[in-house]
Design brief:
The chain has about 300 residues and is an alpha/beta fold. It contains 6 helices and 14 strands. The strands form 2 sheets. Strands 4-3-2-5-1-6-7 form a 7-stranded mixed beta sheet, sandwiched between helices. Strands 8, 9, 10, 11, 12, 13 and 14 form a 7-stranded mixed beta sheet that branches. The longest helix has 17 residues. Bound molecules: adenosine-5'-diphosphate and magnesium ion.
């Protein structure tokens, strides 16, 4: 397996000691940004595929996402007997509406529940859940991790930490009977990525997603719009199906308030399965694909 950058993958010896045959259920991977969660989660996924038939990967980071453009979480199933990454089977997406969990923790927890239910309905035996790196207690990160753990009931929590940054979460968890905590040191290959690198990764993911997009006119009174229609040019929105899964993203291009129509730039080709439009709290420039936050009233703060 190749890491996401160009450098070779370093597999620390303690990764090799993990026995995939002993792992079932939901395996949660947590840690601060850039400790190597995603790299480890991919490695673990591929190891599990060699033992189990129905393995899924949940990309739960709406910022540095790898299976979908940013602002979304994705659950993808592997094909039986295949360890390809990205997984090549069925997948489901859930819209978070922002590139950071800050201020958007509820859609992350609700989305994870919805995605894990889909995985369970599809008969998945084991799921690797790769999370965002927000662990800072002052920003609510610890509560987010606790809420996820409470709802998901993972069988194993893989905690990657340099120092004791996860201590306040791990200490009580270790005493629970229903979960095993496995602590890992970050690999020496794990590298800090700057704000600009992370922003560049997001822009590249968005650009790839929107290549081949076209204009789609939507009469918004025919759909549920969450929250109430507050369309702004370049606002990112998601088109959702009846179960709340995201069918795709769109960027608002024109707004016709008289006819209650909005023109979206989107790769989604038909409104047949669309039940709702969900507003994101992001504006996205359709030329550069640089994202900027937008506040709840639809005003866009320029940084
Ligand atoms: N074991 C490893 N071997 C080689 N490179 C790694 C390894 N772990 C992480 N990296 C590199 O470090 C950076 C951050 O890793 P990543 O897995 O994306 O971290 P996180 O998901 O925790 O933010 C990436 O550029 C990745 O390629
Ligand atoms: Mg990651």
């Amino acid at each position: 397996m190749k890491p996401m950058g160009d450098q070779p993958l370093d597999i620390p010896s303690n990764w090799e000691l993990i026995d995939p045959e002993l792992l079932t259920g939901t395996l949660l991977v947590i840690g601060a940004p850039n400790v190597g969660k995603t790299t480890f989660a991919r490695h673990l996924y591929q190891r599990l595929c060699q033992t189990w038939d129905r393995v899924a990967f949940l990309d739960g980071d709406p910022g540095q996402s790898i299976l979908s453009p940013p602002t979304m979480m994705t659950l993808a199933l592997g094909e039986r007997g295949e360890d390809a990454f990205p997984p090549q089977g069925q997948f489901w997406r859930s819209f978070v509406g922002a590139v950071s969990p800050r201020g958007h923790m509820l859609p992350m927890v609700v989305g994870a529940a919805r995605l894990l239910r889909a995985a369970s309905d599809a008969g998945t035996q084991v799921i690797v859940y790769d999370t965002s790196g927000l662990i800072d207690a002052a920003q609510g990160g610890m509560y987010l991790k606790l809420a996820k753990i409470d709802m998901i009931r993972p069988t194993v929590v893989f905690a990657i930490q340099y120092d004791l940054e996860l201590k306040s979460l791990l200490e009580p968890l270790r005493r629970r009977r229903t979960v095993e905590v496995i602590q890992l040191r970050p690999s020496t290959g794990a590298k800090q990525r700057s704000f600009l690198t992370r922003q560049g990764h997001r822009a590249a993911q968005f650009a790839r997603y929107f290549s081949g997009a076209h204009l789609l006119t939507v009469n918004w009174v025919r759909l549920a719009v969450f929250p109430a229609p507050s369309f702004v040019v370049n606002r990112l929105v998601a088109l959702e199906d009846e179960s709340g899964f995201a069918l795709g993203l769109g960027i608002v291009q024109r707004i016709d308030r008289q006819f209650r129509q909005v023109v979206l730039y989107t790769p989604v080709t038909s409104l047949d399965r669309v039940d709702a439009i969900r507003m994101g709290d992001v504006v996205l420039d359709p030329q550069t694909f640089r994202d900027e936050p937008i506040n709840a009233r639809g005003f866009h703060h320029r940084s």
